[in-house]
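In this section we walk through a basic example: taking a raw amino acid sequence and producing a predicted 3D structure, encoded as C-alpha cells. The instruction is simple. Fold the sequence below.
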Amino acid sequence: MCLIVFDWRPEAENGPLFTLAANRDEYFSRASAPLAWWSDTPNVLAGRDLVGGGTWLGIARDARFAALTNYRAPHEMRADAPTRGTLVADFIRERACSPLDYLQRVAERGAIYNGFNLIVGDFARRELAWYCNRAGTAPTLLAPGTHGISNAVLDTPWPKLVRKRAQLASLVAGDAAPALSTLVELMRDTEIAPDDALPTTGIPLERERALSAAFIETSQYGTRGTTALRVSVRDARLGIEIVERSDDDGSHRLARPGHHERAYTFDAEPAAALTR
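The resulting C-alpha cell sequence is shown next.
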C-alpha cells in the first residue's frame, strides 16, 4: 500500500468515525489475492500477498484495523529482511492487545525490517496509532483530523499526498459519509507532479515522476488496487463498509487498470460498547 488518506473522528457520537481511501502499489508479477474473508482466519477481511503471506490492509470482525506502506529508501533495502505484511495480519488476528501496545512491541524489533509505516486501530476502543521504523520516534496515538501516508513518514508533504488529503478533507466537510465509490474514484488519479515539486528519494528522475501520481501506471509496476473504508457509529454498534477495486478477478490473472470490485458491509462483533 503506497498512498493512504484518512479522516479520523474519535469523538463521533453518531456517523463516521473513520473514513479511508488507499491505493496499493506493487509489481504486477507479485501474486496476490483480492479482498476476502480468510479461510484460515475467518475473522480477518483482507487481500493477501501470496508470496509473503501477509497483507497490506485489513479489518477484523471486531473492528480491529491495520494498514501498511513501504518507506522509500532504495539504498537501505535488504533482501533477507522479513516480510512486512505480517505486521498487518498479526495485529488484526490478535484480540487482547491495544494499538499502542502492539506498535511498541513492533518497535522493539523494528530494525530487522525494511522501512515501513504501520497504522493500527481498534475502533471499539476509539484508538488509532502510527509507527514508522525510519522516523526515529516512538509509536504514537493519532490526533483527530485528516491525515495521509505515502512512502515517507506520516503527513510528509509529497504532492500526491497533499492533494489527496486536501480533497478528502473537502469531501467529508461537505458530506460526512460520501459514497465509497466516490472515495475510490478520488484515488484513481494519474496526474504527475511537476519536477520542481518532486521529492528526492534516491531513485532516477523518470521513475520519481511516474511514482508521483496517486494512481501509478508503468510497464512492470503500478497501482494494483484501491480500497475505500468507512467505520460508523450507529446507536450502540459499529458499522463497517469496505470496497476494493482491483486488477484481479480472483483468478490471479491481471486486467489493467483494474475494474473488479468487491464490497462488504457488516456490524462489528461483538456489538461494541463504545467506551473510550
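Looking at the output, two observations stand out. Residues 159-174 form the longest helix (16 residues). Residues 164 and 170 are 10 Å apart (CA to CA). In the next section we compare this with other chains.
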